[in-house]
From TrEMBL:
Keywords: ATP-binding, Cell membrane, Kinase, Membrane, Nucleotide-binding, Phosphoprotein, Transferase, Transmembrane, Transmembrane helix, Two-component regulatory system. Residues 334-386 form the HAMP domain. The chain crosses the membrane at residues 15-39, 314-337. The keyword Transmembrane helix applies. Its main location: membrane. This is histidine kinase. It is found in: Cell membrane. Coiled coil: none annotated. It comes from the Bacteria. CDD domains: HAMP. It is a multi-pass membrane protein. It is an enzyme of class 2 (transferase).
Amino acid sequence: MGFAKVYLAYLKNNLFMRLLLLFSLITIITIISFSFYMYHSMSQAAINRELDIQKKAMMNVNNYLGQKYDAAQSILFGLYRDSSLAAGVSFMLQHPFQEYVQHSLEQNNLGGNSTWNDGLEYFKNHLEDDEDIRNIMLYSVEQQDLYVLSHNRPMRLISANAAHSYIPEVMALDSKSVTLPNIWVREAADQWDNHLYAVRTPINDKQTLKNIGQQLVYFSSDSIWKVLSDEQKDLKGAILVLSSEGGVLFDSSDQYYGKPYPYMDQVNAMYEHSEMNNNNYVTKLTQNKGDFIVVGLMPKEELSASSWRIGSTIFSISAVCIAIAILLPSLVVLNVAKRTNLIIRFTRKVKQGDLTARIQDTREDELGQISRSFNEMIDELNQYIERVYKADIKQKHTELTALQARVNPHFLYNTLEVIRMRAISQGAHDVGEMIYSLSALFRSFVQQKKVYTLKDELEACRLYLELFQIRYKDKFTYTIEWDRKLAPLRIMKMSLQPIIENYIVHGLRNESNDNKLQIRVHQMDEFLHVQVTDNGNGITPERLKEIEQRLQMEESEDESFGLRSIHQRLKLLYGSKYGIELRSTPGHGTTVDVWLPADGGKEDYDV
């Protein structure tokens, strides 16, 4: 399935899937980027940590070798501080050993200084005091003899005559202080241990400062492990101690002992900080005092193993985080999508005419509130439809009843017009006026208009009142007070005329000459207030209570158009806050307040 098909099938019209995909991509990219950053940072930190451990160990080795170099030098410094001892050693190195022995005996017999002949014992004591020393050798330049002192062995005197040995040439060379033991010296001293390094120091006559020999101190390279004991557990890679010629004085990997270091040229070309060649991180420390070099080698494979463990841990955690970061929001989004689709399905049901559909969602979040609002909207819509439907039925019933009076409207209008003209021709002008008002009133009742206004209803009331004013001449008067600006306001047909009729039937006092009816119309905020006041018979409190109760009851189909009809139709058409109210005082009159919508009930009429 191509990308286009997948997009059309799952993403194009699915907002939640697009949001989930976007969130997943952002989450994955963010976590992977952060993981790589963490991996790089922690790997570099791990490398630096390993290099720091190695460098600390190298510093310890460097300091240790410096101390051993100082220890070898201090042997001669101690010798020079004792003039008698220095004179004895100078004599020994400048004369044959037998002559030295004989001369020593003579010095003792003569009562000379006893320290004069303790030279070899002095060196022997230093050998015994330092367990890291394997041999101390004294070479005589003039006699070409080599004195060899070893642990648990007597002193050996070895002739190093140039005719039989290369030792004189070796000793004559300008060699550095810390080196590998020379092979000719090894052979002469019978010392073949590869784990040794030599500290060579010239011996000068204290009086003449003439060079009379060499001191060679062989130290054990294995003793260097003592300073590495604390770091040995965490130490990775190898530490080497190299002479300036490339000889391996110490090798923690035990790989290069007994042969020259093959990468000495690269080491000499390095500065004294960590660098990386093809396979190793290399750290170099130079000791000028002994002219040796401490080199640290850290194979990239070992560091890669540590980095791989760190990377595996980080990426495992990242994978878990990605899974959780996607799974949990996915569950939430899918749940929201499910609830949203439920709302969509119910709205479609309502669209298809099923007004009984209700969404069952009791949660208090936004979708729960939308669901409850949807249910409330459908409830109100049902009530509204029922109210408008009933109001329309009642209005049609009212109009139908009015239409029933239209037996033959044109015949009736023509007949009334003939009667009116005949009454006027005979001088009965008041009869003519009554017939005209009656004809106009009937016309307004039966006329079908799309828009019925306040002006139309007040005109119907005026015609009706004109009829009765002619009938009760000098006994009845009326007034209509209203703002002409309210004339085009739409109102319900026959919303006021039945109230006027109700007064004529029940409130007019035939025996009185001051009957009066007053109609006032004015706007109060969202209401159009019509007040009909008369000074008629009034209504007793018991009868008024009964009428008020009947106003709240359903109107029967065969009931005439009275107050209850108006009240019920107003409430059904416009709402519960509209309708009529009654106030009456027996013997003083009645006031009827009619409350209509000030906006003409446009929304209801539109529906």
